[in-house]
Amino acid sequence: MGACGSSGGATIEPDPVQKEKAKEIDRLLNDEKDQASQLINLLLLGTGGCGKTTFLKQMRMLYGEFLKDDDSKKEWITVIRENMFTNMSVLCNQLTENETMEPPPEVAEEVKASTLHLLQDLSKLKSLWACKEIQAMYDQRFTYTHETNMEYFFSHIDRILADDFIPNVDDILAARKMTVGIVETQLVIEENGKPQTLNIIDVGGQRNQRRKWISMFDGVTAIIFLTALSEYNEKLAEDPTTEAMRESLSVFKSILRTKYFMKTPIILFLNKSDLFKEKIAKISIGEFFASAPQGEDGKDYEKALEFIKKRFMDLNNVEDRNVYPHVTIATNKENVQNVFNSCKHVIMMKNLKSVGL
Ligand SMILES: Nc1nc2c(ncn2[C@@H]2O[C@H](COP(=O)(O)OP(=O)(O)O)[C@@H](O)[C@H]2O)c(=O)[nH]1
Ligand SMILES: [Mg+2]
């Protein structure tokens, strides 16, 4: 029997086996603490279509194995072609509603078909695209709400409809597949020579998806809230009576008021700045916000950007909680890489603080 448990007041020497066990337990506890300090929960939030999943795709390409081979690229063919049908349906609806123009007889049936996207007949897409009335609706695209990728996909229509089409990275970044529920992705990222696990939490952004968000609010290290700059003149996809940017502002406000996030650093991505730049030169922001620069000033990129940025930043009501704004293009690899490098610092600082270092 060992010395443990013997009586008589003698000094008890710890059993070497027990000593080893205690050391092992200490080591495990330290490892656990170390791992906890390395796990970063990054929550992506924002209304539907603002670019959350696109940002995640970029991160998976930069730090993971996403799209490393042709087979995984081919999986996107169906999504991309379905996106083409959806976009064409929007043009057809515009033409149907247009009072000054009629569809030519040879495509009249297709234009009327609300089930265009179910036809799956690629040649129909081509014949519709060739028709000048559809082109006229396309030329007016800045004036109505449509999917962001409309322009990109139509400018590549021949390649996308070809039999031997294999999507490239840009095609896949432009592809839209709506996120349902919550998707967690873990990526290992080296910071100061030390691997850190980044758990990126992507969520569905539409109204009916937002009630699921709260289940992810505990233990969040940092939030990236995305908003699409280019939606200043658009309506919400799930409710055409609501203005998209007002909805985004109101969702951002409620996130800033959430008790879980009083000390959470919030990174604000003013996204889709490429499309915003193109659109603002044509359509003044003054038409949509009374307090925005009006007339020609409202068509000035810098002035309009400053107005939107301030509207979002002014919603932060907690003095020592920082909101870090960035102007972004989630479909652009270099832009995402640069922006993430600055965010990384913010996220790491918070992470070190939360474990008492
Ligand atoms: N041109 C452009 N398109 C973008 C940008 N960010 C996202 N998109 C497109 O916007 C659409 C919706 O993006 P997605 O990431 O699915 O939005 P989510 O609902 O927030 O996940 C997709 O077609 C993307 O390719 C951007 O900065 N510029
Ligand atoms: Mg998504």
Briefly, what is this?
With 357 residues, the protein is an alpha/beta fold. The chain has helices at 16-38, 52-63, 70-74, 77-97, 108-112, 116-119, 122-129, 132-139, 150-154, 157-161, 169-174, 207-210, 244-256, 273-280, 301-313, 333-354; strands spanning 39-45, 182-191, 194-203, 222-228, 235-236, 239-243, 266-271, 323-327.
What does this structure look like?
- By secondary structure, this protein is of the alpha/beta class.
- The protein has 2 domains: 41-68 and 178-349, P-loop containing nucleotide triphosphate hydrolases (Rossmann fold), CATH 3.40.50; 77-166, GI Alpha 1, domain 2-like (Orthogonal Bundle).
- It is 45% helix and 15% strand.
- It is built from 16 helices and 8 strands.
- The protein has a 6-stranded mixed β-sheet with strand order 2-3-1-4-7-8, sandwiched between helices.
- The longest helix is centred in the N-terminal third of the chain and has 23 residues, at 16-38.
- The radius of gyration is 26 Å and the shape is globular.
- It starts with 15 loop residues before the first helix and ends with a helix.
- The relative contact order is 0.14.
- Mean pLDDT is 88; it is low at 1-10.
- Magnesium ion (MG) binds at residues 52-53, 179, 202.
